[in-house]
Amino acid sequence: MTHLASVLVLLLKIHTIKSCAGVSLKTQELYALVFATRYLDIFTDFISVYNTVMKLIFLGSSFSIVWYIRRHRIVRRSYDKDQDTFRHYFLVLPCLLLALLIHERFTFKEVMWTFSLYLEAVAILPQLVLLQRTKNIDNLTGQYVFLLGAYRSLYILNWIYRYFTEPHYVHWITWIAGLVQTLLYADFFYYYFESWKNNVKLQLPA
User: Could you tell me which of 27, 24, 10 has the C-alpha nearest to residue 122?
Assistant: First the structure.
């Protein structure tokens, strides 16, 4: 639920304050691509109402955030295009090639699912680079990134528990992608907790 909380925090910031300052459009576009390729089964494989609703929420929210930053007449004015310069498209092709080479089954949906795992692992990079360049990190943006990283960290604890309690529970691709994703947040987590402990404004070293 921390992933959903992170999305709600970001939507709250954009919708109520009418500002996307400190938010990387590049990261949001990557997340939109992550969910679009991960949930290709939404209209073919029914698991539960809850599962379908959550998929629709993540798809709808990710594309709406991109729309807000790109098209909303007020919100788009606060987007810092000059600082958000990470070439995110350089992340897409390597992730796709890796998914074509390393996957569990060579089917279109399975390769796209694997691609979404690899891409999600590195999708936060443009956001982290933007935060390093931005001296004014507001509370909502900091909380958004923290919750986004915390959700994957909690998943790792869940994987460890299930590995020791469930027979034959091994998912190397998911585990490695999740570990890489969590390690990318390590530096941010350190400075986030330091700012919280010392009651000072969050700043990342340039």
Answer: 27
Query: Could you tell me the two tokens for 67?
Result: 């729309």
The Cβ-side half-sphere exposure at 94, using a 13 Å CA radius, reads 11
Are the CB atoms for 192 and 135 separated by under 8 Å? no
The C-alpha atoms of residue 51 and residue 37 are separated, in whole angstroms, by 16
User: 90-114 pLDDT, tens per residue?
Assistant: 999 999 999 999 998 999 999 999 9
pTM of the model: 0.91
Integer-rounded Cα Rg, in Å, for the chain is 17
Mean pLDDT of 110-136: 92
Evaluate the CA torsion angle 189, 194, 199, 202 in order and state its sign. negative
Query: DSSP secondary-structure letter at 73?
Result: T
CA distance 74 to 85: 21
pLDDT for residue 170 is more than 80? yes
